[in-house]
Amino acid sequence: MGLSATESLNSDERDSATEVLLDKDASEGEQKQHHKRLRTRTTYCYYFTVFVNALATTITYSSLWSYLKTVDIETTTWYLGLVHAAFNGGELSCVLLYGLWVQYRAAIEPLTFSLIALIIGSALYAWSHSFGYYGKFTVMVARMFVGCSTGNDVIVTVLLCEQTTLSERTSAMIYISLAQALGFIMGPVLQACFVPLGEKGIYLKGIFLGINMYTMAGIFCVFLGIINLAAAWKYVRDNTRAKEKDSDSEDQHLLEDKNGIAKEAVEKDKNSTNGELPDIIAVVTVLILFFFVRHILVFIEVMFSPMAMDLYALSDQDTLTYVGVMLTIIGFCSIFIFVATEKLASWAGDRPLMLASAVFGLLGFVVLWPGSNTYPKLGHFYTAAINTTNGIEYVKKVTLGCSPFHSWCKTTPVITIPQVVFSVAFLVISFPISYTILPSLFSKIIKPGRQGIMLSLLNLSGNLSRISGPTMFTSIYAYYGPKLLMLTMDVGLSISLLFSVAFYNRLIPYNDFIRNIK
Q: Is the pLDDT of residue 13 over 60?
């Protein structure tokens, strides 16, 4: 009986121990699932932030000029250029600020600042008409605030790089680019949805707010900014920072539990303590590539409309219609390219795709070379009588066709429609791939850990192309025409392609570079 009792006791102890182990495994499994869910929600919050940035950028593109004229009827196109410059200047000035801020402080701080800037800027845009004479200046300040908010892309990129491994990095960058593309597309679409409100709309006297097809863009962005801010405070927490002590395993566990971040983020901060610099040549190469590649998108946004009016004698309305449809098609096609890039990157790798995107970009402008036997219809001046409050005034206008201000109209052939179709096909393959692959490649080349400063340099390179591109393109086009313009793009993209080939073997992840030099 004693032996039986002992065996029974041992059996009970084994069962009890087994239950404890099972409960522990179940608890760890639930904790892992909780971390996974939190990490997924945080990632979606990052994507939503990028989407809101892109939407706030483009939602006023088609209505800004008309809104300025309702605020101040005497405003000029020169002032419209100042408003656009204020937006780009705000973004450019804040990119480095956010990079430094996220490098040394909690990431939620600059992210909160940027979202508050979006809310303030959008609110000022909606209320601009209530400031009387100062309304047009309010519009400029409002767009500058919105520009400051869109610079938070660097914050999102830093956070996303920290919570992904190298193998996950390209996929994460693809979905960021996809969210951005959707935002760029939805901005003009939503603005078109507000048109039924009309120019007068509804006026709320109590708060001095007119709700019409112009101000609704600002009001909508205010609500989006508030939702984004609430989501950021709920799901985004401070990630690992290089200045934090990571030797205490309990603190590491607490940090991971708080953020829902994979252990790779902590390991990357451990590795970042070494003093080895990344491959400077590789870093500079990617910055140069990104600068030239971003000019492709700038060219599409800036030059398609004036070229359509000059080369094909289209009216303002026809130009808006045809170019708008083409840009919409480009936007939707780019979404499919973004999705396909993930599969292509896992199959071919980042560097071959980078080369392919450079080749397609170069081909896109080579085929646009004006070489047909047809020349554009020439426009000419005529005098038109306009009824005004002071009586009839006579003003000079230009008929449809190539502007008489352009001396190249008589010597430069038309770019044929098939050329445009082939060019768009090449470009719509090129810029989505390069726009995704280059940031992913750059984040792998630079030192692991908090990458705020370095990634802000990449964003700064892209912003410089957005500032220099419009001025350079419009000046070359006005004085020398499409031939020199296409030649300029060909030279720039050829330089980027040569850099890609010359330093192809150096565009490798940081850890591989360190192993090679040792």
A: no
Cα dihedral sign, 123-129-130-131: positive
Domain that residue 518 falls in: 278-372+406-518
Assess whether 229 and 321 both reside in one domain: no
DSSP code, position 277: P
Residue 23 exposed, middle or buried by CB count within 10 Å (0-12, 13-18, 19+): exposed
Q: Which residue has the higher pLDDT, 461 or 453?
A: 461
Count Cβ atoms below 10 Å from residue 400 Cβ, excluding itself. Answer: 14
Mean pLDDT of the chain: 78
Alpha carbon 328 to its chain's center = 17
Write down the residue that tokens 């059996």 correspond to: 11
Residue at 298 is within a domain: yes
Question: How confident is the model at residue 113, as a pLDDT?
Answer: 93
Tally of domains within the chain: 2
pLDDT tens digits along 185-206: 788 778 778 878 887 778 887 7
Cα-flanking dihedrals φ and ψ of residue 68, to 5°?
Answer: -60, -40
Is position 185 within any domain? yes
The per-residue pLDDT for range 237-250, each reduced to its tens digit, is: 654 333 343 333 33
Q: Is the dihedral of CA 101, 103, 106, 110 positive or negative?
A: positive
As a whole number of Å, the CA-based R_g of the chain is 28
